[in-house]
User: Fold this.
Amino acid sequence: MLKVIQVGIGGFGRCWLETIKRNNSVATHAALVDIDEGVLKEKAEAYGVPAECCFTRLDDALDKVDADAVVCVTPPAYHREVCVKALEAGKHAITEKPLADTIEDCRAMVAAAKKTGPPPVHNPVTQYKGGCSSIPTRAAPSGA
Ligand SMILES: NC(=O)c1ccc[n+]([C@@H]2O[C@H](COP(=O)([O-])OP(=O)(O)OC[C@H]3O[C@@H](n4cnc5c(N)ncnc54)[C@H](O)[C@@H]3O)[C@@H](O)[C@H]2O)c1
Assistant:
């Protein structure tokens, strides 16, 4: 079972909330993270994630829950910060498109991945595939 911290749960984050719920034999939410406390409360209730697993800062989620992967569904300006933090904490990093909004940020993410293990999984084409349902299984630990 892939334990996922989802960062960014408003907007397109709903697609990932639904996808992980739909694929609950391979993935589950270890935590939800969003800077908007209202969205956090609403989605935690809607998706049955306990309040103690909901955070406004990724650092707190990384400290307090056991997780395999971080899915980043924030605006692109934050993809670098979220993914590098996830990789440095030893997690898989899966990010929404675009990889980042500057070449400098993209290079920093690739450099972090080279140091820490597998490259970040980028999700460029979900609009052509009817959802993100193939992504969690790509990042799932072997045997999941
Ligand atoms: N694959 C697709 O078809 C598709 C479709 C739409 C959006 N996207 C991508 O999804 C990502 C999010 O887009 P959106 O439209 O949902 O954006 P949005 O502006 O609606 O923000 C999404 C959520 O992220 C939260 N957030 C913002 N900064 C944060 C931070 N630093 N830490 C934690 N949470 C933070 C916001 O509070 C919000 O709830 C973007 O990368 C976008 O390109 C992909």
User: Anything to note?
Assistant: The longest strand covers residues 27-33.
